[in-house]
Write a structure and sequence with these properties.
The protein is built from 3 helices and 4 strands. With 88 residues, it is an alpha/beta fold. The chain starts with a strand and ends with a strand.
C-alpha cells in the first residue's frame, strides 16, 4: 500500500534511525512537530476550564520525591497515565 503521512511529535531520543528508503518506496509524507505555540496552550487550557474535554486518569499528581519512580513507570507500563505532574 502506498501513500499516507507519518507525523513525528515530541522528542524521544537524541538521534534515531529513520527508514528513508522504505518511506520513499511507500510514497509517504513525513511531518515533524516538536512543540505547541502559546495560542495552542491557551486554547487547550480554556477548553479544559470550560469542561469541553476531560483528561480523566491521563494526568496525575505525583510527589516530587517519587519522580524517578514515575518516570520509570511511564517508560515501562504506565497503564492509562500519559503524564505525571510533579508536586512538592
Amino acid at each position: 500500500m502506498c501513500g499516507g503521512r507519518v507525523v513525528l511529535s515530541g522528542l524521544h531520543e537524541e538521534s534515531s534511525e529513520m527508514p528513508v528508503a522504505e518511506l520513499i518506496r511507500k510514497e509517504q509524507t513525513v511531518q515533524a512537530s516538536s512543540c505547541y505555540t502559546p495560542p495552542n496552550m491557551r486554547a487547550a487550557i480554556e477548553l479544559l476550564d470550560r469542561g469541553g474535554v476531560s483528561i480523566g486518569d491521563w494526568l496525575i499528581d505525583v510527589p516530587l520525591a517519587d519522580g524517578s519512580i514515575w518516570f520509570d513507570r511511564l517508560v515501562g507500563d504506565p497503564g492509562p497515565v500519559a503524564k505525571d505532574l510533579l508536586v512538592s
